[in-house]
# Entry
Amino acid sequence: MGYTDVYESWKADPEGFWMAAAQGIDWVRPPSKALFDEKAPIYEWFSDGLVNTCWNAVDRHVEAGRGDQLALIHDSPVTRSTKGLTYGELRDRVASLAGALRAKGIEKGDRVIIYMPMIPEAVEAMLACARIGAIHSVVFGGFAANELAVRIDDCTPKAIIAASCGIEPGRIVHYKPLLDRALEQASHQPDFCVIFQREQEVCKLTPGRDVAWHSFQYGVEPAECVPVEGNHPAYILYTSGTTGQPKGVVRHTAGHLVALNWTMPNIYGIQPGDVFWAASDVGWVVGHSYICYGPLISGATSIVFEGKPVGTPDAGTFWRVIQNHKVKSFFTAPTAIRAVKREDPDGELIGDYNLRGLQAVFLAGERADPDTIQWLEDKLGLPVIDHWWQTETGWAIAANPFGIGTLPVKRGSPAKPMPGYDVHVLDEAGHPVPPGTLGAIAIRLPLPPGTLPTLWNAEPRFLKSYLDHFPGYYETGDAGYIDEDGYLYIMARTDDVINVAGHRLSTGAMEEVLSSHPDVAECAVIGVADKLKGQMPLGFLCLRKGAANPPETVVSEVVALVRERIGPVAAFKSACVVDRLPKTRSGKILRATMAKIADGEEYRMPATIDDPAILDEIREALNDIGQVPK
Ligand code: COA
Ligand code: AMP
# Structure
């Protein structure tokens, strides 16, 4: 069956479609039905099934005779090491870790924060939680202590599992001091922390609080898989929203298993025994779905890569990993390909490697510009597939499903909706717009299995953020259009979220940090176009009368403050000082207009602008910092 038949078969019988997909999962008790809509508009999937994620991702493959197949390959150019773990080894390690967690009191439903770099132990920690029904929340290493503290207070973990350090090119990331600072700031305290000591930096454990990864497993009984209900939360993953308080996206167990298992062969063309590589980080949703769970649930080998597309040691790293480990499908962010292209514009390094085993490259995380896609297609001579999704959905909303026959490619479009997603483009009043017309992209409820059922401890916020604006729909927060042939085009966010190097960041959160500087009276942060990272944040500051510091000092202090409070990943490097901010007559800051000016794009004078002359002042200020050409 090709795409159209598959999509139509879902549309004709969604319940039957997902019950058939559920057959790919080992159930302790099969679900009686797929959709549970009793609490609509809150929907759940397979709620009365009993199942365990770790069993499906690890043990069942050992039982099926794949115990000697590699489950994970850690390829770490930053430590110059490569090592593999078979499914059999992974099962034993995860069972031991899960047993040790259980022996220290972790039970089904308890939360566990995981704060680790790209090492196999991070995946083991996720699976160990899943094994005993604990709910993990992985926090990305590029966030500052304050961001970790916010997450600790929101999900109140009973334990935190961390590594002693991470390795960024040129510097060691000191995880343990970051953890200590986060715990000083947080109101909630875990019962204990488990620290994995890396040889690159061994840290001092805090007596009475910390246990060492290896020694706390000594002598414990390995844990068996604990069956959980289909709607038991598998994990919480925090993502940026409009404010500094991140949203805790909840993922239910059964829908997650069924959906990811469906995507591996159908979207990515991956069968058991194949090698799949997502060059992302376990701290992001791509890492959850396609470094840890998706490949393992489907019995493939997954690569845990600790390096960068360039500089570790060169722009040939991706091709080396693909050759050495016989990667069949490769997933990365467009920004990574732009970084490679900048270093190796003619793709000469590609020629140094044998990439015959590679069948396709998948891009997501931000808009894939047609030039980048074209360059990669030309250099590799392979399909380069853009697909669109979000932390909230956990898997592709729209894609060109490689495994069921690729659709004709239209560069700049992530192709068509996947089964389960009924995608519409709406105007402000919620009416569908004609093909080719820009609008808000919304998905008709219910969302498919594997997508978010709610936000952790914040159902009213879930309803307000996603469901209230367009009743009967999930609001994606993205704007775009659908063409005459049904292809989707994702053009921009409709909220205060920006996308920097494939990382989702909140300008609202950055504004909260800038406003906390005593000399700042008012501020705005916008995303401006950047050739490498897609977007970069840029701040505008209005200083208080009688500010204690000169403007240059305030600018450098707020840059340091964002790094300290949000983290290096915010990549907040520049700000300009202005007398006033452009606003509507009702006082709303015209951020979109400012972004258009900064990008040198045409813009329409907003009818509601309070004082049009301010826009000239903004242009001047941008000229002064070299943001727009004079
Ligand atoms: N832990 C600690 N710090 C981290 C980090 C981590 N896991 N990841 C990034 N950082 C830091 C970087 O070291 C950098 O710090 P610096 O200001 O001291 O240089 C800062 O955060 C910004 O990082 P980034 O935006 O990634 O920029 P970069 O210049 O280091 O690298 C790219 C640029 C394009 C090579 C890189 O962003 C990249 O590989 N992007 C792919 C993104 C991706 O895979 N996203 C996942 C979604 S699919
Ligand atoms: P995240 O939740 O971090 O995965 O970020 C999701 C957001 O990234 C989406 O809402 C989009 O704004 C953007 N995004 C992800 N993939 C794509 C894509 N293929 N094309 C355009 N935008 C994308």
